[in-house]
Amino acid sequence: xxxxxxxxxxxxxxxxxxxAIADAVxxxxxxxxxxxxxxxxxxxxxxxxxxxxxxxxxxxEAAARGIDAVGLKVDIIxxxxxxxxxxxxxxxxxxxxxxxxxxxxxxxxxAGLDVNIEDFATAIEDSAWSGAPLFRAKARLLIPSNISTDxxxxxxxxxxxxxxxxxxxxxxxx
Length: 174
Hints:
By secondary structure, this protein is α+β, with helices and mostly antiparallel strands. It has four helices and eight strands, in the order βαββαββαββαβ.
């Protein structure tokens, strides 16, 4: 019987870390399903969803400990399984002058509308015109059926006159 697990990884960034994780997954008979891996704050961070035979979980744990020895901390967490949630997918992009509290404000509005954040990526970049730091975020949301896209847009636009929110209401392509 197969089981799904999530590997969380954090360590000093260097070439070959993704390969080391892939080697460990493969050696344990696992299948790499999904991942989010990146350089963040000078560290290599991420998560990997893996499916493998339940009887070989110990092999994956041993292989992960071997990766730890080369400067990467790997934790293995049982997945709760894929559950399909009802709702309408919506992609948004947020751009505005950087300041403390933007993420808190945006996530507070979304949580208040019972909107689920499926994916959220943020970055700070220099403005092309002023050189001042700009906050950028891209999010993939799941909107409950009783909430309209317009209601989400209006709620986000009310939180600050300094941010712009662009919407792409096209369904996500798998």
